[in-house]
Amino acid sequence: MSKFSDLLNTYIEERGVKIYPLAQYCKIDRSAVYRFINGTRIPSEQSVVQQMADYLKLTPQQKARFYEAWEIANIGESLWHQRKAAEHFLLNFPKTDAVLPEQPWNSSENFLPTTKTAVLLKSKEEIRTFLETMLIRESVSAKPELMLLLQPEHTDLADLLLGDPRSKNFDICNIVCLNNHNPAAAQNISSYNIECLEKLMSLYVHQKGFCSQYYYDDVTMHFHSVSLMPCMILTGSSAITCSADLSFGIAHTDPAVIAMLRDVFRKYKASSHPLADKSSWNTPKFENQLRRFSSRESVLFGPEPYICSWLTSEILQKYLTEDSMQSKETLSAFSSYLSAWKDCAETSEITWYTTRSSLEYFMATGRIASLPEGLMRPLSCHDRHLYLEYLFTQAKNRPIHLIKGPLERAGSHFHLYINAQTVLLTFPESGYSISGLTVREPSLVDSFSDLFTYLKESGQFTQKETCESIKNMV
Predict the structure, then answer these.
(1) What are residue 426's phi and psi, to 5 degrees?
(2) What's the CA angle centered on 84, arms 152 and 177, to 5 degrees?
(3) Smallest Cα–Cα separation from 159: which of 239, 97, 103, 207?
(4) Are 243 and 230 within 8 A, CB to CB?
(5) DSSP assignment string, 260-307
(6) How many beta carbons lie within 10 A of that of residue 425, not counting itself?
(7) Which residues pair with 460 in a beta bridge?
(8) In this predicted model, what pLDDT tens digit does every residue of 246-270 receive, in sequence order?
């Protein structure tokens, strides 16, 4: 039995439906319906599920549950959760221009009596109070740093770090445990790993000095370990060792203890791997990574397909802002970015997925959302239509697809590139810069690759439908 067969049984019994007329309405054999009910078989086509839902007169909420149960039974619970986690990541990618709530740090020197080098912290509130005291003390050092041996579930820590402007001077390194590939470990291995990356993204996007590294273990065991203090928060002069749920811990200020804990952290870091490698568009690393994607078959999800290959020097002369034209560094980085993209447009085998909403946003505002705010002025209506005509020509000759389904609501402020070994996320930052995050962790790459393989099967408009839609917009 499956959740799908359980729901089907429930709806049939609640409505007193007879099997034969249900089978006739769905144009399937009555024996097939009995197998659906017994859980020995599931419908192979979503259209059959749709017909069953219509005949059973399900409410919108019941239909959603019915389709979800069918999807889980069809592809397996683990893969379903993985795809939903990847989808949730893209729908919740943080915006660089978002206004972050201010949470200034408060110091409580009572937690640092001069006669003690260790203090018992008996609640989450006491841990937070001591942590804020640590951060304030560290913020005045010559090179503020924060070392975390901590899982990303503690999202209130990210809010704390991003809520005070003093954190922008910190170098922060977070070592996290990702689920291993042992089937005996947690059921939804890849979905947990994506959720970890998602919870760290606000720090990657808003905190210039942030990096994260990972090692593998059974995360379920990590959180239920008999080890009393599996987590550590460390600065140059203070430390907290605490439980996995941050409900109790010990505060340390003894220089010898701090030195020992820093050495422990360095050893963990040496044996772990970068979760995401961040680079800026004015660096060779960024350009090389972008060109690697253009040299092999890959998938790209993002707004304004091929607009960078359409931006001619004449158009740039019309729309580059005065501030950006006066910055040689900005113009050089932008020129390299455009050059890499023009090569990409000519040589790559990219399948580009985009959304109608991102094209409508461009047409309504003239704003190129994938470029830094302030780099270019909004394009005129005439030039917006010229771009759409160019895109229509590209869509007839290249695999460009509009997406349907939940990802239609995804933001238009980032690009996601995927090939067999790597995921690259690019997004504009405040000022005149684009940043890139390169992810090579295998389960994360596989999860995003699987999502777009699935979209290729059922979540995209055909090339002909995409062309027709763009033509109608023109």
Answers:
(1) -120, 145
(2) 25
(3) 103
(4) yes
(5) HHHHHHHHHHHTSEES-EEEETTSHHHHHHHHHHHTS-EEEE-SSTTH
(6) 25
(7) 403
(8) 899 999 999 999 999 999 999 999 9
Nearest-angstrom CA–CA distance, 315 and 327: 18
Report pLDDT for 432.
Answer: 84
Q: Do 52 and 45 form a contact (C-beta atoms < 8 A)?
A: no
CB 54 within 8 A of CB 26: no
Q: What percent of the chain has pLDDT over 70?
A: 93
Q: Reduce the DSSP state of residue 376 to 3 states and report it.
A: strand
Query: Which residues fall within 8 angstroms of residue 430, CB to CB, at 6 or more apart?
Result: 96, 97, 372, 373
Nearest CA-CA partner of 176 in 226, 132, 230, 227:
230
3-state class of 437 per DSSP?
strand
Contact 28, 20 (CB under 8 A): no
Residue with tokens 């397909």: 305
Q: Side chain identity at 448, as an amino acid letter?
A: F
* pLDDT, mean over the chain: 88
Nearest C-alpha neighbor of 433 from the set 94, 90, 96? 96
Separation of alpha carbons 109 and 38, rounded Å = 66
Burial zone of 193 (CB within 10 Å; 0-12 exposed, 13-18 middle, 19+ buried):
buried
Residue with tokens 């820093």: 262
Quick one: which of 262, 264, 154, 173 has its CA closest to 212? Answer: 173
User: At 435, which amino acid appears?
Assistant: S
CB atoms within 10 A of CB 243: 18
14 CB burial (10 A radius; 0-12, 13-18, 19+): exposed
Q: In angstroms, how far is the first alpha carbon of the chain from the final one? A: 51
Beta sheet of 350-354, edge-to-edge order: 277-280, 433-439, 423-429, 415-418, 298-301, 350-354, 400-402
* Whether the Cβ atoms of residue 380 and residue 62 lie closer than 8 Å to each other: no
- A 10 A CB-CB count for 338 gives 16
Task: Give dist(CA 54, CA 57) in Å, integer.
Answer: 5
- State whether residue 417 is helix, strand or coil: strand
pLDDT tens per residue across span 356-366: 999 999 999 99
Q: Are strands 277-280 and 433-439 parallel, antiparallel or unpaired?
A: antiparallel
Q: Is the dihedral of CA 409, 414, 415, 418 positive or negative?
A: negative
DSSP label at residue 97: T
Task: Let me know: does 365 contact 276? Beta carbons within 8 Å.
Answer: no
**Of 341, 472, 473, 462, the residue nearest 400 (C-alpha):** 462
